[in-house]
Amino acid sequence: MTFSLYGPFVFGHLHCNLKNNISPPVDDDVCFALHRKYQLRRSVLAQSLDPMEVCGVDSEGKEFNSAQEMWREEIGEEGDETKKTQWYRDGGVEASVDGVLGGYGHVNDADIIGSEVFLKTLLQERLVNGETNQHLVALDCGSGVGRITKNLLIRYFNEVDLVEPVAQFLDAARENLASTGSETHKAANFFCVPLQEFTPADQRYDVIWVQWCIGHLTDDDFVSFFNRAKGCLKPGGFFVVKENLAKQGFVLDKEDRSITRSDPYFKQLFRRCGLHLYQTKDQKGLPKELFAVKMYALTVDTPPKVHRTRSKTSSNRPQIIK
After folding, report:
1. Is 55 in contact with 44 (CB distance < 8 Å)?
2. What highest taxon heads this organism's lineage (predicted)?
3. Three-state DSSP class for 106?
4. What are the tens digits of pLDDT across the range 118-130?
5. What's the pLDDT at 52?
6. Euclidean distance between the first and the last CA atom of the chain, given in angstroms as a whole number
7. Is 212 in contact with 190 (CB distance < 8 Å)?
């Protein structure tokens, strides 16, 4: 299984955004099918109470009435092992930043800047609290060639562990990180294990960073991974999930066996994992023709509710209906 193939925007050979536009070259029939499908189903999706029941489409233009229908076709009714093995098959891209970003290496700077702003706020609120002697440890899931560790995590954490199933990518990560960091900020461990089979060490991590890789996991393996990983967070620790978003339902990439989920789809899976949504942020500065990207901060503990009171003077003023 190659998590790193699930780059920021690649949908087979198509590149889609949330306006359902597809940049050339694409097949006209597929383009029409995608557009028509979303137009016809929009009212149904808006009324759906269960995100898992929303419809989706694959990279060949086939429509699905629900996520369950798609998973039955892809991995069988009860998770057929042969079909599941095929789902987690390996692929191949160049072991470089441009390769793991699906040919969009030039978005690296915008991605890292957006992630850093999000991370700094979370660290201040959840972990640092003015202390300077904390020993912080992060896990980079689906690390690929170490892009996120090198450009972001190693600057904020004393140790970063990397988990990546493709040995070629992990070797490139070791090389890329050999001269990065210091004795107090370093890449510590390199695990060559598929995420659906990986169990992190108990209470080792302050942050578990999951970016552009979880789309390769089936729903059941998604839930199973986070259930295992919850016990690997230190008190106050949290997950960051940063992923592409489908505008509605889901988009299945038949070529590299990945699924782009919608925001309601993600939130339903997070609930199944027993995780609480602490904070979210939209990634800015990416090309408009690409999938939108969202960051989720997730905690095991329930975030405290903030009770706000309104003054009598302001309560009678005209308000925007939300």
Report:
1. yes
2. Eukaryota
3. helix
4. 999 999 999 976 5
5. 64
6. 43
7. no
Q: What are phi and psi of 252, to 5 degrees?
A: -100, 125
Please name the residues in contact with 56: beta carbons below 8 A apart, sequence gap of 6 or more.
Answer: 63, 64, 66, 67, 70, 246, 249, 250, 251, 252
Q: Residue holding tokens 């899931």?
A: 141
Low-confidence stretches of the chain (pLDDT beneath 70): 1-53, 79, 90-105, 129-132, 305-322
pLDDT for 82-122, tens place per residue?
888 888 874 444 444 444 445 555 788 999 999 999 999 99
287 preceded by cis ω (within 30°)? no
**What DSSP character marks residue 129?**
T
DSSP string, 32-101: HHHHHHHHHHHHHHHH-S-GGGS-EEETTS-EESSHHHHHHHHHTTTT-HHHHHHHT------SSHHHHT
Structure-block tokens of residue 46: 């808006």
Q: Give SS3 for 289.
A: coil
Run of H or E residues at 186: strand 186-191
Q: How many helices (H) and strands (E) does the chain have?
A: 11, 13
Q: What pLDDT, on the 0 to 100 scale, is given for residue 78?
A: 73
- If phi > 0 it is left, if psi is from -120 to 50 it is alpha, else beta; for residue 257 that is left
Six-digit token string for 207:
């942050």
Please provide residue 208's backbone torsions phi and psi, each rounded to the nearest 5 degrees: -115, 115
Single-letter amino acid code for the residue at 322: K
**What are phi and psi for residue 24, nearest 5 degrees?**
-65, 155
- Give the pLDDT score at 105: 58
Give me the sign of the Cα torsion angle 88, 54, 224, 245. positive
How distant is the alpha carbon of residue 317 from its chain centre? 40
pLDDT of residue 131: 67
Tokens of 9: 């925007």
